[in-house]
Amino acid sequence: MVEGLTVAITSQGWLAPAWYVAGFLLAALIPVIPTPLIAAIGGTAFGTLPAIFYGLVGLALGAGLALTLSRQVGRRAMRRLVPERVWSEWEAFLGVRSYAVWFVVFLILNLDVAVMAAGLSSLSARALWATAMAARVPWLVVSAWAGERLLVNDAALVLTALALLPILYGVNRLRPRVRRWLVRFAADRSPAAEADADPPG
Fold first, then answer.
1. What ranges in 11-47 are assigned the alpha helix state H?
2. Which is nearest to 121 in space by CA: 84, 67, 60?
3. pTM for the predicted model, two decimal places
4. Domain residue spans in the chain?
5. Which among 41, 38, 101, 31 has a CA at the least distance from the CA of 66?
6. Using one digit for the tens of pLDDT, what is the confidence trace for 20-61?
């Protein structure tokens, strides 16, 4: 699979970077595609530094597209794109007005569905875009490096996936607890909570 996708990109000649960037846009349209996978394939196809450079363009455009779709198309389309179980989790975050919390969400769950969900909140789209970029760039760098160094063929992909299974299992087990903590953290730092905490002057 890795070799096939790498060849599919590199065979496009001078348009190869555009196809790589288009992968990030595809992840914004199909928000369950993990962007680290796209970055890793870019690392295999181009090398680490070019994959990071082109990937920054792809991440920027993809996050912008996800936020635009979320703001313009709205909640009804999100309900069709996102499974009910996932949507019920994200509904808890729609009232979150803390960019720090959204940063953690974007960092932990590096999927465009997180950016789309954030776009349904009342926060500034530009600030959310910047927050998403800041949180996802480390993933881009690590994934591009892994693509060049580790995912050199399908056997390496299988071995890497097997090594990551215990980590993914642990993250999945901790996700509900982290979600509840983030919601409480955001609620404690909301303007209303801070106003209640301040004594009358």
1. 16-29, 35-46
2. 67
3. 0.71
4. 2-189
5. 31
6. 999 999 988 887 788 888 898 888 888 899 999 999 999 999
